[in-house]
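Schema walkthrough. Field components (list of strings):
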Amino acid sequence: MNKVISLAHGDGGELSHRLIRDLFVKNFGHYKEAMFDASYIQLPANNIAVTTDSFVVKPLFFPDCSIGKLAVAGTVNDLAVSGAKPLYLTCGFVIEEGFSVNDLEKIVSDMANEAKAAGISIIAGDTKVVEKGSCDGVYINTTGIGIIQRQNVIPNFKSGDAIILSGTLGDHGIAILTARGELGIHVPVASDCSSLNSMLEDAVQAAGDVRIMRDPTRGGLATTLVEIAEDFSLSLVICEKDIPVKEQVQGACDLLGFDPLYLANEGKAIIIVESEKKDAVLHALHMYPEGKDAVCIGKVVKTEQPSGQLYLETLLGTKRRINRLAGVMLPRIC
Amino acid sequence: MLETMRQSTNPDICKAMLEAVHKKAEQFQINNGRLPVYMEVCGSHTMALARTGIKQALKDSVQFVSGPGCPVCVTAQESIDSMIGLAKDERTIICTFGDMMRVPGSTKTLLEEKASGKDIRVLYSPIEAISIAESNLDKEVIFLGIGFETTIPILAFLVQMAVEKQMTNFSIWMATKLVEPILRYLLEAAEVQLDGFILPGHVSIVLGESSYQYLPQEYGMSGVITGFEPAELLSGINKLLDLSLKKEAAIINDHPSIVTKQGNAVAQELMHRYFYNSNEAWRGIGNIPSSGMDLKPEYERFNAKTKYQVHTVTVKKTKCRCGEVIRGMISPEKCPLFAKACHPLHPIGPCMVSTEGSCSAYYHYMRESY
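Field assembly_structure (string):
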């Protein structure tokens, strides 16, 4: 196999064939699927969740993670927080001419490992090679298919419902920013990127049902909670003193002028649950390394608010409104 | 250090200090029949006071006035237009801090110029500009030099590197500002009644505690140098209130682990080696003599203003009142454009753009609290 990807790897000829056979089929175990233009899968009718996401992160490799792991975990988590059991993933690669085959192998192998860890199969794929300069290394799109397990998709929120966060904020955002090497600082923090489907399945089971789950990726905790508040006409309050942030992440934020509330996470979930079920959910989360720092950070204070609002109770006990992030420039983070 | 940081964000310590501030402010009100008025000079303090909820918690006890310490906000419109104009030249690579990207020029922003294909780069570390220049010898790399005494030594360091490397394709567009001239201007103009200053933390690291003695000695005005965490801010406000109650004027260094008496001598020497005190135009104020720094004649070869002629259009007049906001004359919500025509996604004045801008602080943290 050539050491770098050339346009010929994407033209459907011999090199394309070898790339697919030696790299994708081998890693993803696609021997049967590769014989047809589509994969045949069987799912219970009327109960299917589908999600899609494109990954353009820079750099492609960062502490404890790569775009490959991210492309699997990101889509798995979108299904998991929607209350679906993830089963299958498809992936589409756009590769820049000249890209290192070794790096591509690492990325594909990371995808295969994460798929195995999450208990899902990657069942279809596509590869395109574009001219040098037309994309930045590798872009990956993944589409996830899962079975909906929850009965009530539209949640029935009540005042007093607890807002649970599954761990520390901003690890992924800061890991990516510092891995870019542009800041000239080293922050000893790894990305939190991981598939949360097993943990979240246990959490939901422990509670019987939850109101809603979301993963606070791009835009962070603040943006995700503002969306929930607006979409479901809620007034939410979170407490600054209860929000877990690693010291090194807080330090980096202070230095660079970022707010951890808006930093991206790739292995965290927000779970809103009836307050009596809060402890059961926390107990279930604490059983997993990804959920060991899970904590209740706030509550739903009012429902049926014509315009939903998110408030932060500061350390001093005052409350201030939290809005969507507006106009702060961050590098591509997912 | 970590222990100090934990204490400075400890809710119990903060609440006890807040209580003390409330009591002293109440006494001030009994003595004087009005609230004490303190100006936070630095934009980061404006942000910190709003973000931590201190401004909201003290809204009936202490009046805070935002000062002229946000570098983008005090930059004159003509100067911003010139900087944006530089980007139009195909021979240039513009390097800048992120805050400048969305500042509205009279016609376009740097972000819009970048979208239309101009080479504009946001740097976290200005030193990157030197390596960009080294690897783009066919282009002129221009660094947009805005900032106060915190940033000026870094700009001087860039010039030092450019001198040592004998660079011919690197220059700086200087639009820097100095703290002392603007504080003197504000006190002499007396447009706002003040009882003291919360002095800038970062600038003080460079200048040192002793550089503010003109405030008590010539103007009978107090100032406290403080940090940015809630307990540090509250401690500083407490000490200002002590002075106000005793009717004494003094400079208190409440940040002694970071700020020394004489400041950073190396940084000061570097500034004065390459730059001289120049006249600078301030937004909404106009020219103030010796209120900024520019390249000395012997380093003129690194001065983008002499290397590049920029033709700017006449400055577009808007109803933006940033000029009054930075002088502490009005609070942001008094501007007719605030949160209506002017908001972070569509800023009309620089105070709404910068992460240190008063209008941005008010928009994000102060509009709706309860």
